[in-house]
TrEMBL record:
Protein location: Membrane
The name this protein goes by in its record: G protein-coupled receptor 82
Organism: Cyprinodon variegatus
Main localization category: membrane
SUPFAM superfamilies, per database record: Family A G protein-coupled receptor-like
MF terms (GO), sorted A to Z: G protein-coupled receptor activity
Amino acid sequence: MEEPVCSKASGSMEDTSLGHSVNNASFSLCPSAATLYFLPSFYTLLFLTALPGNFLSLWVFLRCIPSISPTHIYLSHLSISNLVMAVTVPFLAAYYAWGSYWDLKQIPCQIVLHGITPVLHINIYISLLILTGVALSRFAILIRNTHASRPSACIRLLPSGLFSSLTQISFAHSMCALLWVVAVGGIVPVTVYYSVNEAMESAAEAKKGGCKKVCYSPVVELGGSVSSSSSITLIVLFFALYLVVLLSYVTVLKHLRRSRRNANITSSQSLLARVSRNIVVIQVVLSICMLPYHIFKPIVLTLAYDPPAPQPSSCPSKHSCHPINTFIEVKNFLFFLAALRSSTDPVMYFLLDRTFRQQTLRILGSRRKDSNKKQMVWSTTEGANQKTENMGEGNMILSSEELR
């Protein structure tokens, strides 16, 4: 297998300071064993768990729950998004395994640029928006069904009609449709511009210097000026919604504390506890899976940004690794952690919703019973036939005694 670098090497000494632009042709990415082997393995495992888990979840939401709630609407759309992403995960595993050998204009690389990149980012941010909607919906249910001795100041700042709307199924349908339009309409144009203009222009510049631009490269991993600016916007959006969920949880805790002082609402304590637990689950998912990536991504962009220092005649050699090569690999592992959420979401559904939990256990329980029944019938028939052949008809009684 050929080396993922250009055939020409630069004849001058290369500056390895962090100030070089990500588009500098004199640098390439040097994937480590972690990128070449561990990341593809992790994404393969993610595919094997996310696909059946979200398919089962979507089946339960659409076919097994007789009366749906706004939370079911939000989570079913989240399952659809996760299923779409799960289908694209094998291509991402192939990208990390062989992207450093693909030419930027080859079909596999174009699939990653035009198809996989937008799907992954749409999934992450549609999930963020939906989880925020679930948290606010649960928060609204608490506000409408419990009463504290003194309402929270945060509650008084919001329109009174908002809480009733958040608990309506029609509002949940409309909100999900709007979230899809916002996510797709905001991310696809940027990724198309990035893949068609920024990445291809970098490849054209490298070609002028006699270089081969590979798919796994700084410009693909970090993007150009437009895509980097949009990344900052998405990062700001994440932290804004993260604070919304955190604020709703703090308000729930205060509401819970005030409600316990009121003897007239002791019957609603279980509802308060469930809502509080549900918002905690969402906060934990966002904190573990998505927060590290959104903290680290601005650091990488800050280290990578600098006005271009054109060197058209230089091509990267096998020793001209990009100065922030290690930071990029860390970013990719944190991005996997964000994508891992699609595999753990069915577990979150199981913890969030009692109806989903009951229906899932019923499906799994009935399948287990059917499997045990078939195995019992098969072993009974096989054992009975064998004993009949060897010892005669009288041993059939012994066989039936063993089954009891």
